[in-house]
Every structure is written in structure tokens, then in C-alpha cells.
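The following record pairs a protein chain with its ligand, magnesium ion.
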Amino acid sequence: MTIQWFPGHMAKARREVSEKIKLVDIVYELVDARLPLSSRNPILDDIIGQKPRIIILNKSDLADEAQTKAWITYFANEGISAIPIVAQEGKGMNKILSTSKALLKEKFDRFKAKGVNPRAIRAMSIGIPNVGKSTLINRMVKKNIAKTGNKPGVTKGQQWLKFGKEIELLDTPGILWPKFEDPMIGKKLALTGAIKDTLLNMDDIALYGLAFFKENYAQQLEKRYALTKEEAQLEPPELLMRISEKRGFRDDYDRASEMVIYEIRSGKLGRFTLDMVPVSLTE
Ligand SMILES: Nc1nc2c(ncn2[C@@H]2O[C@H](COP(=O)(O)OP(=O)(O)OP(=O)(O)O)[C@@H](O)[C@H]2O)c(=O)[nH]1
Ligand SMILES: [Mg+2]
């Protein structure tokens, strides 16, 4: 994926997403559980306005469990429900259903009180590239396909997919761009694979990843590359050289960088969360 977001693209995506949001009662803001802040979109608050939303922390199988818990508390303090899921395995789908219904209960009770025939809750998901939007939709719908015999309803040209009995899901997710301005956020997004091809070079990203693990998850680093405690505390460039040696890559540091990035991304160094909840906010 080599998308470069230029102002024109952003304006177009913003228009498209704003239009779609008008059609739904609730928005599922999909983020990477390893990056609960950096994978959020800076202008989504603007577009969503007062519409109810749920923050869905996807890929929570790859994230640090203690951090995921802390983030849920953090968002709760901001008045937002956050739900950890593993879209790939269909974990957390029921919680999305029950939370959506709870958040919209008042609105739908009002409809009922006015004698309006109850309709299904309408929802859509939104997120940056590669965060698992398609996987989530497939999971939500698959669950239902088994029950209903695969017959999505079509309303005014938009396709709605059944998610449970009481929720309809807009067929296409909204794609927004991540925040690029801050170079640190760029590195975090690159390390998790949210932007596969960027202006950042692979060495930079690998060195950033090693520095982060050395600082926060040293034991996981030691274990993966059979390093001593002292070795794991080498400066990142020396650390990369040592790992390269151990893997038999000699001085092919590009290859070592790619390997390290791939292994971090895919969870071979264990679970981790790059956006850490500020300690002062975890109490
Ligand atoms: N480990 C893990 N991987 C996941 C999970 N959900 C999705 N993935 C993987 O993440 C990658 C991206 O998933 P997609 O569903 O294609 O993401 P997307 O948001 O639709 O991506 P774009 O269409 O490119 O914007 C795929 O390789 C998925 O298998 C999850 O819960 N855990
Ligand atoms: Mg997709």
C-alpha cells in the first residue's frame, strides 16, 4: 500500500465518510489495540459530532493485556465505551452487539413511545488502513449468514448487512488516513504495518522497534534472540548487528532490519503496546 495522502484525497475521504455517517445511528471507531491513540483519526471527532460511538480495540491478541485494560479505563473516563476484540477469531462480537443496543436504548425507546415501528439499529465502521475493517465486517456478517441464509437488505442503493437480529451494518467501511504530522506516530504506524510503504526507511523503523523493546519489554527481546541481559541493553545499532550475527545474516543489516520488523509486527517478540497510557491517568 503506497497511498500518499494529499489534501485533495483527505477532502474527498472526509466528504465520503461524512455522507455515510448521516445514514447511521452509531459509529464503530476501529483502532489497533497496540496504538489506541496513534491509529485514531484526528478529524473523526469533528465528523462524528454527537453521534454515539464505540472504540473497538482490534488485534488485541497482539497487544499488552495490562495496557489494553488501562486504555479501556482511560476511554471510559472520557465517556467512551471501548471494547477489545480479535476480529480474526470473531472474539468480542457479542460485546459490540450488547453495547450498541445499550447505547441506543433511549433513542429506540423514544421511537417506541411515539408508536413508530421499531427498525434495526444502523451502524458503520471506520478506521485507518489495515486496522481490520474488512475482517470485522466479515466476522459480524458471517455470524449472521449462518442464521439468516445470507440475504442482505438493500436500502436506497446502500447495502446493509445483518449483524445479529437488531443491527444493520453499512456494507463498506469508512477509510480515513492516520496522523502523519508527528514523525514518532509515523514510526509507530510503520512498525505495526499500518503504513507498509512509507518515506521512512526500514533501518529507522527496526532501530525504533529495538529501542522500544529494549526499554519496555527487554525480557521478550532477550528471549526471542537468545540475548543476555547485557546484550539486550546495547545501543540499538549494536543490538541490530548482534541480532544479525546470531541469525547468520552477517553484515546484511537491511535483511536483519526487515526480519526484526516482520517479527515484531507478527507478535513473535510477544505482545506489546506502543501507545502507553500515561501512568498518572491509570489510577
Ligand atoms: N493478529 C490479528 N490480525 C488481524 C486481526 N484482525 C485483522 N487482522 C489482520 O490484519 C490485516 C488487515 O486486515 P483487513 O481486514 O484487511 O484490514 P482493513 O482495515 O480492511 O485494511 P484496508 O482494506 O487495507 O484498509 C490482515 O492481515 C488480517 O488478517 C486480529 O484481530 N488479530
Ligand atoms: Mg479492507
